[in-house]
Design a protein that fits this description.
TIM Barrel; alpha/beta; about 25% strand
């Protein structure tokens, strides 16, 4: 077996004009350092102007595991970098959180990137920006390459070709992708390709916000906020400019994502964030034509107060959403996921619901005098939305067949507890029995806010959900929430995955996975959780791919934490 290759002197990167011996805006500073067992020259950049892209020629042959080491700054800024091989179509993002008090700046983080054939390859290194007004630094200490035997390569290829472990569903916030600067096909590919060749089966990609689609829909004008709009966050201005440019250039966001996911071997589900989210009053932050500032299409509390959710008791609201779904179905997508999480309820005390309720229960009974969890009121609200789901089924089927595509499945997010689902007017058991939903995604959000009993965060009422799908063809998916920073990733995720698999859950999903994959140790554990029968070994192997490496001196200065490092002098 060949020995691993350590490239610790990164001053060999090209072009030399991008490197400097002092901190210069737009360049990488060469920083000499001494670790426990080797010396090297790392590259570091900071300041508003990002450093120029550089390239590290490898001049190697054959398969290797690639490890990358990052040094955290003392100013607590996160480290953000983008890497790709010459043959990759997109960069891989890496974000290392700022100054770690446990390591006191005396370590670099040695992170696994991937295994690949490095014949004729070079590593391309670029700065990675986060949200505007967030200061970031950029560092890379060394590259470590571990040669793989022929037997190991064969086993790796067999593993990547497996279909039985593809059980994981990612969820991508389509707005966040734009907020973080994705405006081209290559940018978006970076948020797709990280799911390849692992246990990820498909992606729920948010493409509809309220009644606003992020793709062309006949009869619906793209929403572009006026240039003088005062946004609650600077990222929205970047979002506005990107959408304005896409509309001008005819860039089709959904088509691009569909093509990228197909070529990556992933399924694609269009996610619908069914409510609005912004600083009220909403029409000032997002001056929307359909809203018009009068809130007449919103749900209403019993006293008439509007709630920032569209009411699906209104036929014209349904018609607008169905027009959007119809257009999405013609792209050949795999499904539509309706997101009640931060998007419901869908029917409350609107005039249309009140009229329907009195038809059923008599004119003397006023539903506005009843709590939302009253069984009669819950049944009425659930029936109205169930009728809408039936229209969704028909619309998706008709539109897909018209375009020569397979009808997309219907997925619906649920809340943590049975009580919360009732408060939102969700009747999964009835809808599953009627065949109105193909997939139920049980989300851990929210629980305690909508129940009278004590519920801990991350709790899922699985008995309720298992009862809903029992004897039906509806698939149950359980959501795992992100581990706390203080928790050990492997132990946390393996315990939850084991629990849900033993209960009979078919798949696992995660919220906003686009915000997680830049954290490589976290991502490596997530990406093996589809291994039902071999989960412990796979998680332990993923954990072994990451380690801290002690740095003793930097630019001639002492760093050892038990000595007199520079960060103890202030």
């Amino acid at each position: 077996m060949r020995k691993e290759i350590l490239i610790s002197d990164l001053s060999i990167c090209e072009p030399k004009s991008a490197l400097a011996d002092r901190y210069i805006a737009g360049k990488w500073k060469r920083l000499a350092y001494e670790a426990e067992n080797f010396k090297g020259v790392m590259l570091y950049a900071m300041g508003k102007l990002p450093p120029a892209p550089i390239k590290l020629p490898l001049r190697l042959r054959g398969w290797h595991e690639i490890y990358v080491a990052f040094y955290r700054s003392m100013d607590m800024n996160p480290i953000a970098l983008r890497l790709r091989l010459s043959s990759d179509r997109a960069h891989r993002k890496f974000v290392v959180e700022g100054f770690d008090l446990k390591k006191l700046g005396a370590f670099v983080d040695d992170w696994f990137w991937k295994a690949a054939d490095l014949t004729g390859e070079a590593i391309h290194i670029e700065a990675c920006k986060l949200l505007e007004k967030i200061a970031v630094d950029h560092s890379i200490a060394y590259i470590r390459l571990v040669p793989l035997s022929a037997a190991r390569v064969r086993a790796l290829k067999r593993e990547r070709a497996r279909a039985d472990t593809r059980r994981l569903l990612g969820k991508v916030d389509g707005n966040d992708v734009i907020h973080f600067g994705a405006s081209t096909q290559e940018d978006i590919a970076a948020d797709v390709d990280v799911y390849k060749e692992s246990d990820w089966r498909g992606l729920t990609w948010e493409m509809i916000n309220g009644d606003d689609p992020l793709f062309p829909v006949p009869g619906i004008k793209p929403f572009i906020a006026p240039r003088d709009t005062v946004f609650p966050h600077p990222g929205y201005e970047k979002y506005r400019r990107t959408r304005e440019g896409w509309t001008r250039e005819g860039f089709d966001y959904l088509r691009v994502v569909r093509d990228l996911t197909r070529s990556a071997g992933l399924e694609l589900y269009v996610g619908h964030r069914m409510g609005h989210f912004s600083q009220p009053p909403f029409e000032e932050c997002f001056p929307h034509a359909f809203l018009k500032g009068d809130y007449r299409d919103y749900c209403r509390l019993a006293d008439g107060t509007p709630v920032a959710r569209y009411s699906y008791a209104k036929r014209h609201v349904q018609d607008r959403m169905l027009r959007i779904y119809s257009a999405a179905a013609k792209y050949g997508i795999d499904g539509v996921h309706l997101m009640s999480v931060r998007g419901g309820p869908f029917v409350m005390y609107e005039d249309e619901m009140v009229a329907r309720f009195r038809e059923r229960h008599g004119a003397r009974l006023d539903p506005r005098q009843l709590p939302l969890d009253d069984n009669r009121l819950w049944r009425m609200r659930a029936d109205i939305f169930g009728e809408y789901l039936r229209r969704v089924r028909q619309t998706l089927s008709d539109s897909a067949r018209e375009a020569g595509c397979k009808p997309p499945l219907i997925g619906l997010y649920g809340l943590a507890t049975r009580e919360a689902c009732r408060t939102f007017g969700l009747d999964f058991k009835s809808w599953a029995q009627q065949g109105l939903v193909d997939r139920i995604i049980a989300s851990v959000w929210p629980g305690e806010e909508f129940t009278k009993r004590k519920v801990h965060w991350r709790y899922l009422d699985m008995n309720h959900y298992l009862d809903c799908v029992r004897g039906t063809k509806t698939e149950l998916v359980a959501e795992l929430w992100q581990a706390k920073a203080a928790q050990e990733y492997g132990q946390y995720y393996r315990a939850w995955a084991d629990k849900y698999y033993k209960l009979g859950v078919k798949r696992l999903t995660f919220w906003d996975t686009n915000a997680w994959h830049a954290d490589a140790p976290h991502w490596s554990v997530l990406s093996v959780l589809g291994h039902k029968t071999d989960l412990r070994r796979r998680v332990e192997e993923a954990n072994r791919h990451f380690r801290p490496v002690l740095v003793k001196r930097m630019s001639g200065f002492e760093l050892a934490k038990h000595r007199f490092p520079p960060w103890t002098c202030g």
